[in-house]
Amino acid sequence: MVRVVCPSCGRVTDTLVGGLCPDCFRALNPLLVQKKEIRLEECRVCGAFRLGGSKWIRDAGKLEEEILRRLTSFAEIRGVVQELTLNLERNTIKLTVLGKAHEALPESYVEAHELRFKISKTICDSCLGYVSRRKTAIVQIRARGRELTRDERTVIKNTLNVLSARSASKGLDHVPVEVKEEPFGMDIYFSSSAVANEFVRMLSGRLHFDVLETSKLIGVTNSGREKHRLTIRLLLPPFKRGDIVNIDGKLFLVDGIASGKIIVRDLITFEKNTLPLSRLNLNNVHVHASKEDLEEGIVVSNDGISVYVITSSSREMLEISIKHGRQAALFTPGSRVGILRKTDEIILVPRVLSG
Ligand SMILES: [Zn+2]
Ligand SMILES: [Zn+2]
């Protein structure tokens, strides 16, 4: 074996690589050389990051992926990148690289590199719309021929809360810019049309409504692009839970409304049925009496032949004969009932609990 002296450090070595001992060659030929500083933008509102015109990224793992994907635009790499760790709070982006700088080197090794970067603070697109309270889209929620119920408002507000909770990971535009509550409905303003649509999709799983979408030109941006305001009108059916409806001449209690179907109770047989709203012509469904219009009473006794009810307002005792076994089971003593007076008979209506 030939023993030679390294011209750089003067040590005796078996091999010369590029005229130097392996250690000196490695020191002068790192596996990674950063050529350009990494420039990151950070949203001062939500903390999202953007790397040179990328999308706004709100997840550290995704930001690492993006940096790795573009690594060759900041650095020259001669090895295989094994690991990247970001710790932007501690101001470090670390890369671990495995490889060897020259074929003649005996084995691969690992180098740790710290990358230089600079963060400039700005405001991301979704926060900008929100912060400037830009009203790009309105979702107007109404019900046909009536006010929205408290239950419906609760469902709408809960859905808004779920949506707003997404702002941490998806951007501040998931928080509505303004929510206007009126007796006849709710107007919800969003800074993003996409988020307004996302909200409507979420709500459609919880309430039934028809959707009417219109877009109106409201101006032109400085760069000449047309600005539109999107209006999404949601129209809930005229009936609601607890109402008595007339469908093709028969009376039903609306027990529940879910997306695409209503659950009704036949007020003659007291049987429950699920009707798909797609097959039901809503024009044939008429509100006979709304929940609020029903007189209230309490069942005093039920002997299997008749139900005795005392009315809450006038303390009048009513006797209603039982025609179906289901009636006997529904109207147990102590239960609250609705009273529907028709010209020839009185119909007891089971209470629909809210929620
Ligand atoms: Zn040397
Ligand atoms: Zn932001």
TrEMBL record:
GO terms for cellular component: cytoplasm. PANTHER family: 60S RIBOSOMAL EXPORT PROTEIN NMD3 (PTHR12746:SF2), NONSENSE-MEDIATED MRNA DECAY PROTEIN 3 (PTHR12746). Residues 6-233 form the Nmd3 N-terminal domain. It comes from Thermofilum pendens. This is Nmd3 N-terminal domain-containing protein. InterPro entries: Nmd3, Nmd3_N. GO terms for molecular function: ribosomal large subunit binding. Pfam families: NMD3 (PF04981).
